[in-house]
Each structure stands twice: as structure tokens, then as C-alpha cells.
Amino acid sequence: xxxxxxxxxxxxxxxxxxxxxxxxxxxxxxxxxxxxxxxTDEGITGWGEVTAQSPRALPICAGLRxxxxxxxxxxxxxxxxxxxxxxxxxxxxxxxxxxxxxxSAIDIALWDIRGKVLGLPIAELFxxxxxxxxxxxxxxxxxxxxxxxxxxxxxxxxxGQKAMKIDPFQxxxxxxxxxxxxxxxxxxxxxxxxxxxxxxxxxxGPDIEIMVDCHGRFDxxxxxxxxxxxxxxxxxxxxxxxxxxxxxxxxxVRENISAPISVGERLHTRWEFVPIxxxxxxxxxxxxxxxTGGITEIKKIATMAEAYYVPISPHDASGPxxxxxxxxxxxxxxxHYRVETHKAKLxxxxxxxxxxxxxxxxxxxxxxxxxxxxxxxxxxxxxxVVAGYGG
Length: 391
Ligand SMILES: [Mg+2]
Hints:
Layout: E1 3-14, E2 30-40, E3 45-49, H1 57-71, H2 79-90, H3 98-118, E4 134-137, H4 146-158, E5 163-166, H5 187-204, E6 209-213, H6 220-229, E7 237-239, H7 247-256, E8 261-263, H8 269-278, E9 284-285, H9 294-307, H10 320-330, E10 339-340, E11 358-360, E12 363-365, H11 378-384
Helix pairs in contact: 2-3, 3-9, 4-5, 6-7, 8-9, 9-10
The protein binds magnesium ion.
């Protein structure tokens, strides 16, 4: 079997919605999704995903067209070899970010092909599941009012979910409109954020795990202050309190707050998790399977974390393949915490795929269909494709 073509598909479609009886969040927003189709000469096609919102999507699509030439003619069974071939071809422009984003999409598609060839779900190729269902967590709508957020949090709990995450620190500091400059947060945004978390805790009660995402936006004193002011609300973790570039900054925050720390969506490949684990800088690691290097890489990172008794919790900011690839990879992982999903119900993804995601309570259940367990709906994709980016 030979790879014949890699096609990136850039789609603009409606994002997921809560879909509960209490859903009142109004019209869904348009979101970008980037899927990758890897065709073979034997008619089996693999699907991957590397969704990244603008301005990241276009360079990734452009890069994947070059990768198509690089791996055309390769045997898709040689997943590890192809991973290394792409990685080494692009390391002169950095062995993180775009390089591993492109690898991730291809790697997931190659595992999809492998599963389809063997007639087995990807999860079965890694030793089989270690538990019934794969735990997940989701996000409440970051509502226009604090009451909205609290109501969404409560609605999520009513679906059987037990954990949720939010970035409550909006609106952003005015300097942030042009990206990170000072790492500060306005007093107004800070107070509003704390009120939002207080209302969520009040709405869901003491037994639900609440996580706060800082999106790597703050300097050290701001992050420490936020960690301390949120202490009464018993956070399950504080995520990316400082930008990814300085482990010293992360260490300072870690030593000065009580909430557990989670990092990893901006870390790529096993090598970037070495200083985190070796220096005891995080209680959880949360690489994104569509960015860090695919299923091959996230399994390696999971095993590294397992050796330190640190749980792994795949990040998700994208579409159905991100969730499925994370779930297939985590099915056999003893030290797995939860796979992130946007919403408690992911019915919006049904338009993309031929077999719905099966989320019940706080778990996703994988089908016994081969590979990822889905095919993408090309008719729907063609109707929503960004001109020039599809097949
Ligand atoms: Mg995050």
C-alpha cells in the first residue's frame, strides 16, 4: 500500500453547542476546522485533524501540501518512520509548533488507515482499554453574564458531567488586543473573573471539579495573585498561568499558590515535557493530540508522565477527530484523567461525521468500528470549505 496524496480541508462551520434543556446561548458561532485526508492506492483513506484558528490555519494547510510531496509513495503502515521523516525534514524551522502540528494530522490519519486495514479500532492497537469508557470534561458557555455562566454550569452537571473548565478572565487587559505585552490583567477583569468562578462553584456545589484556564497570558505576580484569590473555590487545576517559554516563571507560580497546575497545550513532543516532569512543575500534563505530534507522540508523553505518577488529560480546542484521537489514545492509559471536549453534548459534530460521538454522563464510549470509527461527510465539508482548501 502506498500514500498517494495528502489533502488539507479548511472548513468554516458552526461550533458545538450545549444542547440541554437549559440551552439558551443563542446562535452558534462560526469556527474553523482543519481536517486532513490521506489517500492510498488501495482505496483506504485516513482522516486526521489539526484545527487551529486564524492566523494559524493557513500556514498549516500550506505546509501540509509540501508534506504531501514528502511522503507520497511511502507505505502508510510505517507510522513511526514517517513521523521521524517529517520531523527531521522541518527541524531547521523549529522542532515544535508548525512542524509537530503537521505531523499530528498525518499521524492520526495513518493510525486511522492502520485500524481500517486491520479491521480494528485504534484503541485496540495499543493493548486495549484499561477502563469502561473514557472520562471527559467540558466547558460551560462563557456567558455574557455571570448568571448565564452559572446556569450553563448547572445544566452541564445535569447531563451527568463531573468536571468543567473556563477562562473567566474576560474582558482581556487592553494591551492584550495586540497579543501578550505586559502579562497584566485589569482589576475589572480580575474581579469579574473571580465572581464568575464563585457563581459557578455556588451553582454546581462542592463535588464538581472546576478548572480555570489562564491561556498563558499572565506575568508571575499576576498569576500568583489570581491563584491566591481563587483559593476559596477549590480549583481542580489552574491551567497555563504563565506563558510557555519560561519554566522559571512556572516554578515561581507553582511555589506560591496552592492550586494544582496543568500545562501542555503549547508543549510539543516528548522532549518539551522532560523539564516539566523532571523539575516537578505540573500536577497534570495536557498535550493536544492534534498539535503535539499525534497519537504516536501523545502515547509516549503519557508513558513518561506515568513514570512520574502525573495524570495526562488531552487538550481539545477543535473538532470530532481531536476528541476521538484523544479518546483512542487514552483508552489504554492508566494515568489518564479526562479528555477535554468543548461541550457536554457534541451533536454539532454529527454534521461532519457518519457516526455520532457517544458521550454519556462524564464518559465517551468508542465504537467497535475500525480506525477512528468515523468517516467525514465530504458533501457537508464541500458546502463549508474555505475556497481553495479542500479536495
Ligand atoms: Mg487551555
